[in-house]
Amino acid sequence: MRIKKLLPNARLPLRATEGASGFDLFACITEGDRRILLQGAPRLIGTGIAIEVPRGYDAQIRPRSGLSAKGVMVAFGTVDSDYRGEVMVTMYVLGTGNSFEIKHGDRIAQLVIGTLADLSVEEADDLAPTERGPRGHGSTGLD
């Protein structure tokens, strides 16, 4: 995967440990005092990087468990292989009146690379039957 710094003070994604499945993404905040206060509405946080994901793969933006435990959430996102703009992370806090400060250089999300299935869409009049059938949400009894 190729990565271009769009801003000189941006940090490249980094695997925190050898066994980590995701690369940490870092906030790249250039305005004001290089801090953003999350409260109320979701905010787009820049990373200062663009990535070139090889064809046949996608990059998934996922929350960090440490931030999630503090009520700081990241909206799951996908970076397609043909996108070349800045990688942005949508962040928000849970609960009314809560806030969280993001500083330049903070680890804010994970970037996980996935392999795409080479499938085509085929319209069908019927689908193969299964034991579960159309029963959905909670129907397996494994809550």
Overview of this protein structure:
The protein has one helix at 65-68; strands at residues 2-5, 23-26, 35-38, 43-52, 57-62, 72-74, 77-79, 86-93, 100-103, 107-115. The model has no long low-confidence stretch (mean pLDDT 92). Helices cover 3% and strands 38% of the residues. The protein is built from one helix and ten strands. It has a four-stranded antiparallel sheet, with no helix packed on it. The chain has a four-stranded antiparallel sheet with strand order 2-10-5-7, with no helix packed on it. A two-stranded antiparallel sheet has the order 3-9. The chain has 143 residues and is mostly beta strands. The protein has a single domain, classed as Deoxyuridine 5'-Triphosphate Nucleotidohydrolase, Chain A, CATH 2.70.40.10.
Name a few traits of the molecule:
143 residues, mainly beta, Deoxyuridine 5'-Triphosphate Nucleotidohydrolase, Chain A, 4-stranded antiparallel sheet, 1 helix, 10 strands, 38% strand
